[in-house]
Structures are given as structure tokens and as C-alpha cells.
Amino acid sequence: MSPAVLLHAAPERSADLFHVIPAAIGDAFTYLERDAGGRRLAVVSVLDRDAVAAAGVEVVDPSGLGRDELTAQGVAPLAADAELALRLVRAEGIEAAIVPPDFPLWVADHLRAAGIALTVDADAFMARRRAKSAAQLAGIRRAQAAADAAMAVARDMVHELPDGLSSEAVREAMQAACAERGCDLGDDVVVAAGAQSALGHESGSGPIAAGVAVIVDLWPRDRASRCWADMTRTFVAGGGEPPAELATAWRLCDAALRLVLAEIRPGVAGGALYARSCEPFEAAGLPTQRTKSPGTTLEEGYYHSLGHGVGLELHERPYLGRASDDLVAGDVIAVEPGTYRPGFGGCRLEDLVLVTGAGCEVLTDFPYGL
């Protein structure tokens, strides 16, 4: 029998809880699964009862666990919530449960003091979310379609390069394109030109000069599903002939991306894909995380991992770097090789990819060229 699962969070802020109760509930509550396929219960008031029940979860009214008496005794709200969590697990005969890494300490302390064994199990909770549901995958596809449309807006603006074009203006236009498609795009998405493009997640600011590299990295979130997409392209401002260094960087990124896409399938280790992506850069004499001296900070070349999982969180498992997870069917991963030189700029290409039973499907629908 699988262990009991316990959460105390708000679906609005917890990907683990939103995964099982996809409702816009902003108040934290206790959720319990007795075991896989067993009863699922949540301690919520009448305000959120219908939304929880719609997810197929059994509603336990706080009054039935003694909330009124606790309030009358002057027990503070947080302490009362912890006591209700304890009463729920005792009523269900639960003596031990697994919890996610962000489980509240004040609830854990109360339960453990009463003899309930809690084990933090990050792997178990992430495994529950690795294979995307049909609704989640539909949301990711909508978010990616919005990303493709917004990237087209950015490309056209950067290539046309009207006088005074700024990173802020491009960002604002992309936000409007995503909003039209039911997605939100934050103020920190990357439109980084020239030397700014060598600085990782530097958002970019100010006017864009002709002939420089412009990295555009955007991650819209689908409002309905709360799922994300993620993509990056690099352009030459003004659309002319790129500098030789940028053209070389682009060829290396393109080669690395294509090598990786050809090998994505269930069972492949993310670390093996990362190693494959390093090959073009290392062959060209550029440093990577695996060739740098231990304990040093790499600020040029291919200085980051291959990518990350994407879903209800923008950065989630599987790991695709020196830390590694084996891929499973249903994973959605962002694959983003890049190379950079301080003072000059950088290049990065990023696709969003669904791991299928037979291999993979590239969800990004946008050309790679500068």
C-alpha cells in the first residue's frame, strides 16, 4: 500500500495541490489522500466546498472537527488549523504520511508532537505531476501558441528596428499578444540586446542598436490551466548580416539543439542529453559546466544546464543537467542550449518538447534563424 499523502496549502499558490484540485482557492487548507486510489479529503468551509467537490474530493467541514469549540476557547487561527489537520489524520487512522518540501513547519511540528510521522518526499510529489493530464497539456499548447505569436511580434519589431526601439517596447507588444490569447506574460521576460544578452536572465532595457544580438526569452502562462510555456530565439537587430561571432554562436546552438531533439525519448537520462548538447561547444573550444574547474564560476561559453521541466511550475523536474532525471512519457521539457561572451552578447535557442511514448513532439512552432 502506498503511503498517505498530506498537504496544507492553497491551490492558488501550490502546484502540488492545484494538480489535484485545479481551483482558484487562495486560502490554505488540509488535504489528505489515504493511499493511491483511496479516499481523498479536504478540510474546507462552505465558501470553497463546491470547487473542491467538483474535483472529486470529499469535503470535511471544519465544524465537524471542532473548529467552533477551538475558536470559543481562543485558540489562534493558525494553531486551530494545525489541530484540525491532526484531528483529520487521526479520524482516518493515519499514523504516517509523506509531505512536499514546502509543507508548513508549524503544521508539521504540531503533528509530529502528537506522534504522526511525516516524511518529506520531493521525488514522490514531483512524480505525481511529471506526466501531464489532458487538461494540462491543452493549456501548455495554448501557452506555447501564445509564445509563438508573441515571438513573431518581437522578431518583426527587432528586424524592422524603428528609430528608438527599446526592449521595453518589444516586451509590451509581446504582453499584448499573449493577453489576446488568454495568457499572462510578466514584466521580467527577456528582451536583451548586445552585451546585455550575455547576462543570463537579464531582462534587458533601453534602446536596441543595429547589428547586435537580441535574445528574446518568454514564458507565458495559460490562465485557464495555470500551465506555462517557455521558448527562446535570438535575432540580429535590424535583420541584416550578423556579426561573425554571433553567426558562429548560432550554428553551435542550432547543432546542439538538433542533437538533443534527435535523442529525446522515455528512459533517456537528462544528464545524457545535457552531455550531448555540450559536444558542439566543447569541440569549438568553448567552456561548459562539465569542463570548468570545480568551485569556479563560469561566466562565458555554455554556462548553464540544458533546460528543465515545464508544467504547473515554470521550472520543475525533470533535471536536464549535471543533476539528472530519466525522462518519462508525458514530460514536457524546455531544451535551451546557449553560449555567451561578456561584453559582446550571446545566443540561445529554446524549444518546448513533449516526451511521447515513441520519442518526442516539438511543441514550439517557430523558425530558428537569426
Fold and architecture overview:
The mean pLDDT is 96. The strands form five sheets. This protein has a six-stranded mixed beta sheet, sandwiched between helices. A five-stranded antiparallel beta sheet has the order 13-12-14-17-18. A three-stranded antiparallel beta sheet has the order 8-9-11, covered by helices on one side. By secondary structure, the protein is α+β, with helices and mostly antiparallel strands. A hairpin with a 6-residue loop joins strand 12 and strand 13 (316-320). It has two domains: 4-129, Creatine Amidinohydrolase, Chain A, domain 1 (3-Layer(aba) Sandwich); 131-362, Creatinase/methionine aminopeptidase superfamily (Creatine Amidinohydrolase, Alpha-Beta Complex), CATH 3.90.230.10. The protein contains ten helices and 18 strands. It is elongated and about 75 Å long.
